[in-house]
Sequence to fold (380 residues):
Amino acid sequence: MHELSITQGVVDICQDTAAGRRVVSVTLLIGELSGVVPEAVEFCFEACTKDTPLEGARLIIEQVPARGRCKDCSAEFPLRAYYSSCPGCGGHHVTVISGEELRVKEMEVE
Amino acid sequence: MCTTCGCGPEELNHDHHHHDHDHHHSHEHEHEHGNGHVHSHSHDHSHAAENATARTVTVETDILAKNNRLARENRNLFFRKGIFVLNLVSSPGSGKTAILERTLLDLRERLRFAVIEGDQQTDNDAVRIAATGVPVKQVNTGAGCHLDAHMVSHAVENFDLDALDVLLIENVGNLVCPASFDLGENHKVVVLSVTEGEDKPLKYPAMFHNADVMLLNKVDLLPHLDFDADKCREMARRVNPDILIFDLSAKSGEGMDAWYRWIASRTRER
Ligand SMILES: Nc1nc2c(ncn2[C@@H]2O[C@H](COP(=O)(O)OP(=O)(O)O)[C@@H](O)[C@H]2O)c(=O)[nH]1
Ligand SMILES: [Mg+2]
Ligand SMILES: [Zn+2]
Ligand SMILES: [Zn+2]
Ligand SMILES: [Zn+2]
Fold:
């Protein structure tokens, strides 16, 4: 359950940015390959925001689809997982171009 | 008060408070697969008040930024001191501690080691390591399922870094969470034993993707098992074509020499 430390990280970042203002909503970008389960972050969010300026804030999670580029033939394609092979040439030398995001995108403050 | 991370002594316990939260809230999941294929989960609390005066602030901050910053500081420190650092990860029971014990006994005359032992509870592994005569620091993470850079930065305060060649960190037994947390190591080393499934690399791809080295341990048991080592190595390379693989047994000692040569070569390089 590293989602607990992840969620605590979100709260710390938002608190720093909010500088005392109450936070109404928080938007996170979570990549499909990030290893973080959105439902688990939602589960931790309430406990982690208690008695902070984020208490009661709306949590919005945008999942970012995984995409890869083949190092051999330069094809770009959706990645199902780290082990997906290139649909163009069948190779496994794939660079991840999106899907590893773990970011606080924006928030609404009062 | 800690200068690099600014923490007070109480923070080092890493006791996360779990508040009671039995008040009502509604779960609402909207799945929109629009042009951006963005999959949005919104979690509405009944007491969340939409506010007309609210304004949007762009944040764009990596959630792991703090860990990554502390990891970078650890890495810089280790580089300055010329210490080669490995972060060993695996499921519980794959043989991380056994590999460390044997490695220390065989190499302690040639290289100066220290070990950080991460476990949720107990100092059993640190006791095993201490028996080799190598300095060891146990870190108990409690509910935490991984070591983080902050814990490592404080654990190394227990060692004389000027008198070290190699720091070995045994992470908490878990193939998921430690993948996300950089500790400042040179390489993640994933241990997989032949008593586990060949398909572990595909089941836990993030870990095998992030590791530079894989130790396939307990090969002394291969004659008694149906484990297909070729298939396992092939699956590991599917997730990470560049992964370096050593087949070995911490028990019989078979294959350990190649692993030692790799450590020695990386240590001399520095
Ligand atoms: N047969 C065999 N058993 C091993 C080997 N390495 C470790 N073990 C056993 O596997 C169990 C777990 O090992 P341990 O080092 O505690 O695993 P850890 O949880 O990854 O630290 C112990 O009973 C070890 O004796 C090996 O190479 N061969
Ligand atoms: Mg152990
Ligand atoms: Zn976890
Ligand atoms: Zn290709
Ligand atoms: Zn600190």
